[in-house]
Structure formats: structure tokens, C-alpha cells
């Protein structure tokens, strides 16, 4: 049985959620690390509920933080095995959150950072029905040891994907962005990418704006840039 997870939430600005955006935090953080983005994005997605679950495990390297799976950096397959092990817990959470709101799978978007991006891509591409969109910051598409080109997802339509990365990322080198984008293209998953000059392992304002506009476009939400609209 999958472990139960939960985390901080931001309710839809309109009071009537028509979309669900789930943030997946990085290694050693927790849901509080990303939920503030939901508050910033309410103006772009007024009908979206935002939730940022805490990963199911305590982080070995940061006892106050959480991890989706361990990272020792010694085992070349640990990311792959970790994503597989953590996926049932995340799937169960997503199913419950959608059911609670009476929303279907196409009302869902996943937004990950670093290890959370690994989980967003791994899980999102394997759900029975694809989420509407996946935004991955400073992460990488995890491929199995016998999957050099990636497996072809059986989703129609596939999710729209945006990958954003810092040009100076010291934790997950920027080459991971191009590798992931190329692998997703080979899998026929429509993918956009954004590169932030001078940025390390993090999310900058340009990346946040790109992410918000990408989700609004994916959900078919008109963004009003007038002072009254904001």
C-alpha cells in the first residue's frame, strides 16, 4: 500500500477549482519550498487549486527535509529505481486530489524542481491519461539502464512539457536539459525549453513567468495583462 502524503495548499482565486497544479519539491526540501509559487500564479490561473505535497521519506542528508528517493550519487541506476519506487505514492495522491474536486486527468498539471522534476516526468508520462502539462525546473528525464532512447508513452494526447534550466547549474548540468528535450522529442512528447543565463540550481523570475504562461496556454486560460486584470 502506498504511503499517504500531504502538504500546503493554496485555493483557487475564483473559489471554484477547474484545474489542479501539483508542485513536487527537490531533494532535501519539502512542500513549503514551492507553494509560494502557487500564490504568485493565482492571477494567471484563477481557477486552479495548488498543492505541494511533502515527499514520503525523511532526507538522509538533510534531516529537516524530505526526499522522494535516496540519492547517494554512487549508483548509476538509483534515480531510475527511486522513481519507480516513489511513483505509486505520488499516483495515489494525484488520484485522490482529482477525485476530491471532481476533476478529470486533463485538468492536472505537474510542476517539479530538481528531484521533483524527475518524479513529475516519470509519473506524468506513465499515468493512464496524461496530465495536461508538466513543467520541470532544473531537472532531468530519468531513463532506465536499458532505455537509452527512452520508452514511448502510451498516452494520446501526451502532456505538453516545458523544461527550464539555469545555464550555470552546478548540481544538474545544463546538458541535462538538451538530453531530456531530445529524448522527449523522440517519444513524440511536445516539448518547449527555457534557459536562464547566469542562473545556478534554482528558479528565477523569468522561469516563473514562462511556467505560468505555459500552464495558462496549456489550459486555454486567457491572461489579461492590464492593471485591472492583474
Describe the overall structure.
This protein is 30% helix and 17% strand. The protein is an alpha/beta fold and 230 residues long. The strands form two sheets. It has a seven-stranded mixed beta sheet with strand order 1-3-2-6-7-8-9, with helices on both faces. Helix 2 packs across helix 3 (115-124). The N and C termini lie far apart (44 Å).
Nearest-integer average pLDDT: 92
Largest beta-sheet characterization: 7 strands, mixed
Spatial extent as radius of gyration:
16 Å
Helix/strand structural class: alpha/beta
User: Which percent bin holds the helix content?
Assistant: 25-40%
Task: Provide the low-confidence segments as ranges.
Answer: none
**Kindly, what is the distance between the CA atoms of the first and last residues, rounded to a whole number of angstroms?**
44 Å
- What is the ordering of alpha helices and beta strands? EEHEEEHEHEEHEH
Strands ordered across the widest β-sheet: 1-3-2-6-7-8-9
Q: Tell me, what's the shape?
A: globular
**Extended strand count:** 9
Q: DSSP helix count?
A: 5
Strand content: 15-25%
Record keyword descriptors for this entry.
230 residues, alpha/beta, 7-stranded mixed sheet, two-stranded antiparallel sheet, 30% helix, globular
What is this structure, in a nutshell?
With 230 residues, the chain is of the alpha/beta class. The chain is built from five helices and nine strands, in the order ββαβββαβαββαβα.
Summarize the SSE layout with pairings.
Blueprint: E1 9-10, E2 19-24, H1 35-41, E3 48-51, E4 57-58, E5 66-67, H2 78-101, E6 108-113, H3 115-124, E7 133-137, E8 160-166, H4 175-186, E9 191-196, H5 205-219
Parallel strand pairs: 2-3, 2-6, 6-7, 7-8, 8-9
Antiparallel strand pairs: 1-3, 4-5
Helix pairs in contact: 2-3
Amino acid at each position: 500500500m502506498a504511503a499517504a502524503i500531504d502538504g500546503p495548499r493554496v485555493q483557487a482565486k475564483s473559489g471554484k477549482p477547474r484545474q489542479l497544479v501539483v508542485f513536487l519539491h527537490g531533494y532535501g526540501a519539502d512542500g513549503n519550498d514551492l507553494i509560494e509559487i502557487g500564490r504568485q500564479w493565482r492571477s494567471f490561473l484563477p481557477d486552479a487549486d495548488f498543492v505541494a505535497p511533502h515527499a514520503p521519506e525523511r532526507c538522509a542528508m538533510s534531516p529537516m527535509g524530505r526526499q522522494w528517493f535516496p540519492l547517494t550519487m554512487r549508483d548509476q541506476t538509483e534515480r531510475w529505481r527511486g522513481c519507480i519506487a516513489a511513483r505509486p505514492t505520488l499516483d495515489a495522491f494525484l488520484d485522490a486530489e482529482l477525485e476530491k474536486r471532481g476533476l478529470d486527468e486533463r485538468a492536472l498539471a505537474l510542476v517539479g524542481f530538481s528531484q521533483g522534476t524527475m518524479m513529475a516526468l516519470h509519473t506524468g508520462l506513465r499515468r493512464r491519461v496524461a496530465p495536461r502539462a508538466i513543467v520541470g525546473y532544473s531537472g532531468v528525464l530519468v531513463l532506465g539502464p536499458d532505455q537509452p532512447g527512452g520508452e514511448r508513452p502510451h498516452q494520446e494526447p501526451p502532456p505538453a512539457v516545458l523544461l527550464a534550466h539555469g545555464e550555470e547549474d552546478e548540481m544538474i548540468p545544463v546538458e541535462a536539459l538538451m538530453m531530456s528535450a531530445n529524448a522527449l522529442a523522440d517519444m513524440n512528447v511536445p516539448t518547449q525549453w527555457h534557459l536562464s543565463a547566469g542562473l545556478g540550481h534554482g528558479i528565477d523570475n523569468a522561469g516563473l513567468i514562462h511556467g505560468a504562461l505555459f500552464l495558462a496556454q496549456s489550459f486555454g486560460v486567457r491572461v489579461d495583462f492590464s492593471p485591472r486584470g492583474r
